[in-house]
Recover the amino acids of this structure.
């Protein structure tokens, strides 16, 4: 179980709206991608994504933690997209979400809009920026963040691979994120709307 | 504090410490920025990201007018 998500859901259920905002920031891209498989218009994708999060927030008390929050939210997104299409009598695409049967987890797709040259270019610039940022990291920091983000290893697994204490893994991953964020800030900031303050 | 945020994102911060963490940072803008950046970095590394363009903010603004409804089930009309 994703304890971070569960913590945030519980806080939302107790009335902390900021906790749900963090879930929005974390998942809006994934949900928009799912919806974009059903709906072509970017404007409608945004509207339906908003609707999905509104529905999730309104009904947050029905989330009991029996599945991953991401799975629950994914279903709400698909539901919102289908309802939208039903209302507009638009033909469904053939896309169906993928699941790993053994772990009962969603298989996340690669989220790149190949039909929008401008967004594809920005995505390419960000990927190149990440690649360059990884090159300037000290080797142990680069290895730690890669094992975490790409390989999905836990801190204890990384400690075994890197033959170092758990506390060292924590500091290496944190430091790597800090250095990469500072290095990429000019590229990242346009994507973080400052009005969120 | 950034180390705590980093650990929390990776599900490596124990719940009782996370509670204090949220009390301290709930309204901290740097926390919110770093939350966004750290997730965004991970998404890009995994090839799972497109730009945000203020999208999340527009969702958050819309939620300002929404109340939690104990009787509302968002999956009630699911196929």
């Amino acid at each position: 179980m994703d304890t971070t998500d569960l913590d945030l859901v519980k806080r939302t259920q107790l009335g902390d709206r900021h906790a749900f905002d963090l879930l929005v920031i974390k998942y809006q891209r994934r949900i928009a991608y799912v919806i974009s498989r059903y709906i072509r218009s970017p404007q409608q994708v945004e509207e339906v994504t908003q609707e999905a999060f509104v529905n999730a927030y309104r009904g947050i008390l029905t989330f009991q933690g029996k599945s991953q929050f991401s799975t629950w939210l994914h279903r709400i997104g698909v539901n919102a997209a289908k309802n939208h299409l039903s209302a507009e009598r638009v033909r469904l695409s053939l896309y169906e979400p993928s699941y790993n049967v053994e772990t009962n987890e969603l298989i996340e797709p690669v989220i790149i809009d190949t039909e929008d040259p401008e967004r594809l270019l920005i995505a390419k610039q960000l990927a190149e920026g990440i690649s360059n940022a990884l090159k300037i990291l000290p080797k142990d920091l680069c290895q730690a963040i890669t094992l975490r983000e790409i390989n999905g290893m836990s801190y204890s697994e990384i400690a075994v691979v890197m033959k170092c204490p758990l506390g060292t893994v924590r500091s290496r991953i944190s430091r790597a994120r800090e250095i990469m964020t500072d290095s990429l800030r000019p590229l990242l900031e346009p994507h973080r709307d400052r009005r969120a303050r | 504090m950034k180390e705590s945020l980093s650990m929390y994102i990776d599900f490596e911060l124990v719940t009782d410490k996370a509670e204090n963490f949220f009390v301290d940072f709930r309204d901290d803008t740097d926390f919110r920025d770093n939350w966004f950046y750290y997730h965004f970095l991970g998404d890009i590394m995994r090839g799972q990201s497109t730009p945000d363009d203020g999208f999340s903010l527009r969702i958050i603004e819309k939620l300002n007018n929404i109340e939690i409804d104990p009787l509302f089930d968002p999956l009630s009309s699911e196929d």
User: Anything to note?
Assistant: Chain B touches chain A through 59 residues (CB under 8 Å).
